[in-house]
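Study this fold:
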Amino acid sequence: MLVKSFQYKRFRNIGLLTVFAVYFLILVGGVVRSTGSGMGCPDWPKCFGSWVPPTDVSQLPDDYLETYKQKRIEKNQKLAGFLEDLGFDKVSETIFSHPSQYIETEFNVTKTWIEYINRLVGALIGIFIFLTVVYAIPYLKGDKSIFYLAFASFLLVGFQGWLGSIVVSTNLLPVTITIHMALALVIVAMLQYAVARANKEIEKADYKSSPKIYLSLWVLGILTFIQILIGTQVREEVDLISTMLGGVDRELWVDRLGLSFYIHRSYSIFLLALHIYVALLLYKLQNRKLNRLTSIMLILVGAEIVIGVMMAYFAIPPMLQPLHLTFAALLFGVQFQLLIIYNYASSKAKTSRVVIHN
């Protein structure tokens, strides 16, 4: 019994650490984008051909701009050819013909080290999630799904690393950034579910299961996920406008945004109403754990709306951009945790009410 308890605690601790590390990486990634540091390192996995990036342009060859641009083009040609062989002709053409890969990025020590720190955090997460898989091995004898969830997360993190190299080689091609964000949320959800599944036996409930609440939580989570992806597309538009205007005249950026921005803004009003509706349903259950998570969810929604309004009316302050992204990811995580806890606790409560007559 003590051995099982230790194994569970070890798995839970590393699982939670990995989840929080992924959220931290999302924050760091937001800082990378808000500071325009995405191409601070023009190659991958090294940075300017070194595992430790340079601190001064004098450490680079005179033709470094052309050198790294050519390396990106060659890598993209190989990728485009591979995709074309698989039948993805349009995707191949988009990657190879997109003008972003021809943009030369001059060395900036601050941006280089911001991007380098982003990569270090990513590597650290890789270590954490590997340990998560190792510590999940004992569950192969009991609940195999826990191990497979951890292992699948590990594979996705590896794919994320590869996708990160494509993001760099294509010079931040918009569609790759959206996929990058979506996968981060999927990884977080899988890890949360694995940890919760290992902990499901101790979940308690004093309420009756309601299909309406369960469905509402699913709908809320899915719609929030969609809103985050729309927001990522808005952010891609912001990056393009910033590039066109040379990073200045920020007060003009919002006016130049397209349809995605207006959908994102209007959609947020509907999501606010849905959050309030679901929160009222959950508060009626009078369960301490659900109440606490519900309150956190509402606080995050409120913070998201306030930050969104400030960004729209105060020329998109750079410091608010990573917060907006991170709070959105946390909101999705809290919603998913509510769904997991409600499902396990209500299922257990339903089971406990079954009475067997002799």
